[in-house]
Design a protein that fits this description.
The two termini are about 20 Å apart. The chain has one domain. The protein is mostly helical and about 375 residues long. It contains 16 helices and no strands. Helix 2 crosses helix 15 and helix 3 crosses helix 14.
Length: about 375
């Protein structure tokens, strides 16, 4: 129960969001049934977003623990605004505007006045989104495993072998390119070029953000001494959150074409990601449960392959969310078993709460 205080703002946003959803339903239909229908859709979308975002919270926490308290606060305030309003509202509008060759205002009018046409355009863009997001997330996951300095292994017979090849330049990029070409041969021939170009853009985006992040953080280090994880890490996390959001945004259109209902439901879910991130950082959970981070990156790798597969067949979002949560659950169980066998080692590795780094401030 001590962990519930981390979710105070999430509970408040949930109550306000669901009430607003019910009001939208009542305003649109004038019936209790209509109000309850929109209320229910908002709740389902929130659960969908939360189930898809367990791994997002863990990866955010892993990056945040390297950042200075100032940049931690900036990510958890500005970053959440960008995540909720940028990815859940502006991103679908931008996609429709580009796909339909219209302006953002016209896209907003289309979302309000012709939701079915708006949804059709969004779904037509799914192939490009899946290829781009799948490639970016695959590089995120492989960068964790292709690390020659990685010492802790969960699935040893896989991870130890992968680590041996980590020093080979471009090993993970080669893996992604091979998988990209395999799936490119499986998609409709008319969409093959679109898939490849979108995937290549995803790869370039990852490499650009990774290089830019290192350059910015080096510059920041030079200015403020030992400070780490500044603007570069912030940008990396924002692009990462955007990639995680692709699946939820596209999946939401299976339930409703109303842009505002989607924003409410996914926005509620995004707040829980923020709360989970804060809890993981402040409580030192990633140090306490040594395989939890591994489980998150396996879930990300699986999600990236599923996004590629969605270019060929439909994969239910519920299955995607449950699959990721299951992998993380197994990693947590493995960590608990390890802790029971080596309790003294764990006590020494986890810093005392009172002497740990400055906690993340909550607003």
């Amino acid at each position: 129960m001590a962990s519930l205080h981390y979710f105070t703002w999430s509970f408040i946003v949930t109550a306000v969001g669901l009430a607003l959803g019910a009001w939208l339903g009542w305003n649109a239909t004038g019936t209790i049934g209509g109000a309850f229908s929109i209320f229910f859709i908002c709740a389902v979308l929130a659960v969908l977003e939360i189930s898809l975002s367990f791994d997002n919270a863990i990866v955010n926490a892993n990056k945040l623990k390297e950042m200075t308290p100032v940049w931690q606060r900036r990510f958890l305030t500005w970053g959440i605004l960008i995540a909720v309003f940028g990815m859940r509202v502006l991103f679908p509008l931008v996609i429709v505007a580009i796909a339909a060759s219209i302006g953002p205002i016209a896209a907003m009018q289309l979302a309000i006045n012709e939701p079915d046409e708006y949804s059709r355009i969004m779904l037509d863009a799914h192939l490009s989104i899946a290829a781009f997001g799948g490639t970016f997330l695959m590089m995120v996951a492989l960068s964790f495993f292709f690390d020659e300095h990685k010492e802790i292994h969960w699935v040893r017979f896989i991870e130890e072998r992968v680590t041996r090849y980590a020093s080979m330049r471009g090993a993970e990029i080669t893996f992604v390119l091979v998988l990209m070409m395999i799936f490119a041969h499986l998609v409709d021939p008319a969409e093959k070029l679109t898939f490849i170009l979108s995937a290549v853009y995803g790869l370039i985006t990852f490499l650009f953000v990774d290089i830019l992040g290192k350059v910015l953080d080096k510059a920041n280090e030079a200015m403020v001494g030992a400070a780490k994880g500044g603007l570069g890490a912030f940008l990396y996390l924002e692009v990462l959150d955007a990639s995680f959001s692709f699946d939820g945004v596209i999946g939401a259109f299976a339930l409703t074409q109303n842009l505002f209902v989607i924003a409410i439901g996914l926005g509620i879910g995004a707040m829980y990601v923020r709360s989970m991130t804060i809890m993981l950082v402040e409580r030192g959970t990633l140090l306490e449960y040594r395989y939890l981070e591994h489980g998150a990156f396996y879930a990300i790798l699986a999600l990236s392959v599923i996004m590629y597969a969605q270019a060929v067949v439909h994969v239910p979002e519920v299955l995607t969310g449950l699959g990721g949560a299951t992998v993380i659950g197994i990693a947590l169980w493995s960590s608990i078993r390890y802790n029971r066998r080596r309790p003294f080692e764990i006590e020494e590795s986890v810093p005392p709460r009172a002497t740990a780094e400055a906690p993340v401030e909550r607003h």
